[in-house]
Amino acid sequence: MPRRPASTHVSPRLWQAGHLFHKAGSSATAGFVRDRLVRVLRGGRGVVKGLRRMGTAQGLSGPKKKALATICGYLASKAGRMRYEEYLRKGYPIASGVIEGACRHDVKDRMERAGMRWVKAGAQAMLDVRSEDLNGSVEAFQQFRVDREAERLDPHRQILQDVEWPLAA
């Protein structure tokens, strides 16, 4: 059975919109939200335009019209980042809780220990090493760093690579 996509930051906005058109707690509201959330997760085409059209058709006015404009403005402004269809296809987490937890684990737990002070360059270097370690590729990262430093210190070392040297055992 395929994994169900987690809820996104879009869900609360869709629930707010659903409550503008349907009674809170009703099956109509749940169906409204489900339909639009599925469309957002599948590419988001037409959701904002449809909400605006629905607001006009139902004659929303006053606070409801303003709330719908705020919801649509939020969704439209985030549209470039809401590539959920692509993210899900690649297996990326889309729920902010997963990402926030990873940030807390990867960054905050390491960077905010007692007495630590960081300059931006040092913090970035530490996060680079931390990320490599958590990804299980710290050995390859370290070898890359050693090779890069060897190249910097002795850029012509390969000219003596094939020479055998009598070394004491």
> First CA to last CA: what distance?
61 Å
Tell me roughly what share of residues is in helical segments: 55-70%
Query: Got a strand count?
Result: 0
> What structural class should be given to the helix and strand makeup?
mainly alpha
What is the N-to-C order of secondary-structure elements (H for helix, E for strand)? HHHHHHHH
Shape: elongated
Beta content: under 5%
In short:
By secondary structure, the chain is mainly α. It has helices at residues 10-21, 27-41, 47-57, 62-78, 84-89, 96-111, 120-134, 138-153.
List keywords for this structure.
8 helices; 64% helix; mainly alpha; 2 domains; single chain; 169 residues
Provide an overview of this structure.
The protein is mostly helical. The protein has two domains: 10-89, no CATH class; 96-155, no CATH class. It has helices spanning 10-21, 27-41, 47-57, 62-78, 84-89, 96-111, 120-134, 138-153. Helix 1 (10-21) runs antiparallel to helix 4 (62-78). The N and C termini lie far apart (61 Å).
What is the strand and helix layout of this fold?
Blueprint: H1 10-21, H2 27-41, H3 47-57, H4 62-78, H5 84-89, H6 96-111, H7 120-134, H8 138-153
